[in-house]
Fold:
Amino acid sequence: MGMGRPRGKPTLAELRSHILGFRGARRGDVILGPGIAVDSAVVDCSGVRIALKGDPITGAIAEIGRLAVIVPSNDVAAAGGLPRWLTVILLLPTSMSIEDARFIMDCIDVEARRSGIAIVGGHTEFTDNVVYPIVCSFVSGVVDRILDPKNIKPGDIIVVTKTVAMEATVIIASDLAEDVEKVFGRDFRARCISMRDRLSIIPEARVALAVDSVVAMHDLTEGGLLAGVVELAEASNLGFIIYEDKIPIAEETRLLCSYFGLDPLKAISSGSLLIVVRPDGLNQLRDSLSMLGVEYSEIGLFTDNPDRRVILAGDRVRKVEPPDRDDLWKLIDRIRGCSL
Structure:
């Protein structure tokens, strides 16, 4: 086995060279398989297109149940699907009790009911191979329209919904409750926690899907906004320009990230949906999101030069590289005394 390494996903280069090439048997019913910026696989099941997605929740404790439903469901929705079915694997340390397992499942059940998703199976196990609980969840749903990031073209506009780094905000305020309340107060922490009710992107994804000129969507999870835009650019072999002053960041997120030393543009951001739309469909997308009551920001556009991926901040131009890993992991490493 190799040497120890930091927590988090492999780099894009590592995914390409070591992971994504393994695809098992070649089957004609696989419509959309593994790839950069591909949120969910899509397969044909007797004429019905099904999106499939699995995700582990490893960076949260207090909100692990909710996130186990929200994160893979968002991926299915971003791929053009409506999440319907959920299987769950609970891997719990032996220091936890069966009552702890029940509490996690109760949180999963509440969020699944809220999203109209049936829990159809899974597995629960106590093991001394983990120190903190891990939940692996698998969501599937029926696909209305397949969105492939390879269809992005120069000039397409980048839109993001709500505010970035909400998931990081919720996790920090939940798992570091005492520290957050001591520095910022109870009301501030409550406002951060309330963002958990905005972490699902299913409603705006369904609305955006109905806009024909929307060509791609991407759920902003690990690595945050910048990782998400870079992944779309990698998938389409394009460049991009992002305008920093147009990126929406809640004041609570800005203060929390500043205190704990996180970059909100590089922190896990479930709840924010990246939407790529042709210029001729922008007004329809604006109207649709406004009618839904979901705030949105037009933060940039894709360009034809894959060597120029930049973020503009006033007169400054900064090249955007793929984040080495999510800033939340760096904070977790510091807290758990494992700064790899």
Observations:
- The chain has a mean pLDDT of 94.
